[in-house]
Automatic annotation (TrEMBL):
It holds the Pfam family Fibrinogen_C. GO terms for biological process: blood coagulation, common pathway; fibrinolysis; platelet aggregation; positive regulation of heterotypic cell-cell adhesion; protein polymerization. It is found in: Secreted. Residues 1-16 form the signal peptide. Residues 79-88 have a biased composition (Basic and acidic residues). Residues 230-485 form the Fibrinogen C-terminal domain. Residues 193-220 form a coiled coil. This is Fibrinogen beta chain. It comes from the Eukaryota. Heterohexamer; disulfide linked. Contains 2 sets of 3 non-identical chains (alpha, beta and gamma). The 2 heterotrimers are in head to head conformation with the N-termini in a small central domain. GO terms for molecular function: extracellular matrix structural constituent; protein-macromolecule adaptor activity; signaling receptor binding. It comes from Hemibagrus wyckioides. Gene3D superfamilies: 1.20.5.50, Gamma Fibrinogen, chain A, domain 1. Keywords: Blood coagulation, Coiled coil, Disulfide bond, Glycoprotein, Hemostasis, Secreted, Signal.
Length: 488
């Protein structure tokens, strides 16, 4: 009996010492030591031997010859003047280049809308005019009728003296009718006419204001528009192309990777490591919700850039470029990615991969990276270094498909709706089972957070485990890509 009691106490202590709540794994738990262990992944515990990790055969990143050679060396002022290419409409916001098309509205669309409103209002005004004229004619007829009644009353009073009683009664009736009609003519009709005239005057005034607005817009349309955040005329296939075309300041530009598609806005970092970087992801203040659906991550969302008083969009906002666009750019040739991050004390670090490719939607945007360098830690290829064995390899991101809370493609028990990384970790990402990096997670002010603060008790912050661990959410993180080319 004492032996059974002692065994029961040991089992109870073993259960109390673990956060793992799988009822079918009780026997495995009893084989573990009762000492506390470090669980850096929230309520997804370290592996205790039950699970078997199957390695992923990740597709190789796009490699080979780059789209660009080394940048040309600096030229003399004389050569620069000879080679300088004049940009049409320089300084404005309208591209005159036929290859780029018109990329900025001039306000003429407002003129078209106003003219359309004018066409809608004019028939109504004409109808009111006809109603007023008809009412005026009716009032004239009533006036004539009243005059005739007055004449008839006078005549009857003169010729019907012999029938005083009958005439008096008939006259009283006529007088009542006369009084009613006269009141309508003298009071009611003029009031209605005044109301209609007031409506007509308001419509006429509105038409005059619209005509003035159209005139003002015509004057404005004679010159290129000036907006509070103009986009430079210089453009290209990507930010590297923009740089080589003369766009050497970091701000918002239009790019067109393929001639068959419409241009779109991006933020180009033209200063870091000699520039040419296309910003595909940015977190800095928690102003944009990254807990989005599959279609949002496919198309892209957020604020590309904004003006802080310098007259151009030189400050990047929080945004995700869009998986379709990221895939298209990275598959056109060798591409490198730079991931920069900052903690709440102002310390900065980075991770860089010389090879970075995102496949298309047919493969659920599989991630492929290689050739790491940096100071933040190689989470994409090696997983979380504070974990060991299978627990670490389950946090490798290379070769993973993209997942969102409405499209589960992770490797954490596929098919089980209660075990989805994107639902628990706050954003769309290349989750494994689940992550060692979570740049699109929930934004926590101040850095450190706890299981109780997390929505599902998991490490759902903006995490880079190999730098700050799971329970520290970064203040800022960004991902930038550019074509890989050998420096001269």
């Amino acid at each position: 009996m004492k032996f059974l009691l002692l065994l029961s106490v040991c089992v109870a202590l073993a259960r109390a010492s673990s956060d793992y709540d799988d009822e079918n794994d009780a026997e495995v738990k009893t084989t573990q030591p009762t000492t506390d262990f470090k669980d850096p992944r929230g309520h997804r515990p370290q592996n205790r031997g039950r699970e078997v990790y199957i390695p992923v055969a990740a597709p190789p990143p796009v490699s080979g010859r780059g789209r660009y050679g080394p940048r040309p060396t600096a030229t003399t002022d004389r050569n620069l003047q000879e080679e300088k290419k004049e940009i049409p409409d320089s300084g404005g916001c309208v591209h005159a280049s036929e290859t780029m098309g018109v990329l900025c509205p001039t306000g003429c669309e407002l003129k078209t809308a106003l003219l359309k409103q004018e066409r809608d209002i004019k028939p109504t005004v004409a109808l009111l005019k006809r109603d007023v004229e008809s009412l005026s004619q009716t009032s004239n007829s009533v006036y004539r009728y009243v005059e005739e009644l007055s004449s008839e009353i006078t005549e009857r009073q003169r010729i019907n003296n012999g029938n005083d009683e009958l005439v008096s009664q008939y006259t009283d009736d006529l007088e009542v009718q006369h009084s009613y009609v006269k009141e309508s003519v003298d009071i009611t009709f003029p009031q209605n006419i005044k109301i209609l005239q007031a409506v007509l005057e308001k419509l006429r005034d509105k038409i005059q204001r619209l005509e003035k607005a159209v005139t003002d817009q015509k004057a404005k349309c004679t010159e290129p528009c000036v907006v509070s955040c103009p986009v430079p005329v210089v453009s290209g296939k990507d930010c590297e192309d923009v740089y080589r075309n003369g766009g050497e300041s970091s701000e918002m530009y239009f790019i067109r990777p393929e001639a068959s598609q419409a241009p779109y806005k991006v933020y180009c970092d033209q200063t870091t490591q000699n520039g040419g970087w296309l910003l595909i992801q940015n977190r800095l203040d928690g102003s944009v919700d990254f807990g989005r659906r599959w279609d949002d991550y496919k198309r892209g969302f957020g604020n590309v850039a904004f003006d802080v008083g310098k007259g151009f969009c030189n400050t990047p906002g929080e945004y995700w470029l869009g998986n379709d666009r990221i895939s298209q750019v990275t598959k056109t040739g060798p591409t490198e990615v730079l991931i920069e991050m900052q903690d709440w004390a102002g310390t900065k670090t980075y991770a860089q991969y010389q090879q970075f490719t995102v496949q298309g939607e047919a493969s659920n945007y599989i991630l492929a990276v290689d050739k790491y360098s940096g100071t933040a830690g190689n989470t994409f290829l090696t997983g979380a270094t504070e974990l060991l064995g299978v627990n670490r390899t389950m946090t490798i991101h290379n070769g993973m498909m993209f997942s969102t809370y409405d499209r589960d493609n992770d490797r954490w028990e596929p098919g089980d709706p209660s075990k989805q990384c994107a639902k628990e970790d706050g954003g769309g990402w290349w989750y494994n089972s689940c992550h060692s990096a979570n740049p699109n997670g929930r934004y926590y002010w101040g850095g450190a957070y706890t299981k109780k603060m997390a929505k599902h008790g998991t490490d759902d912050g903006i995490v880079w485990m190999n730098w700050k661990g799971s329970w520290y959410s970064l203040k800022a993180i960004s991902m930038k890509i550019r074509p890989f080319f050998a420096e001269s």
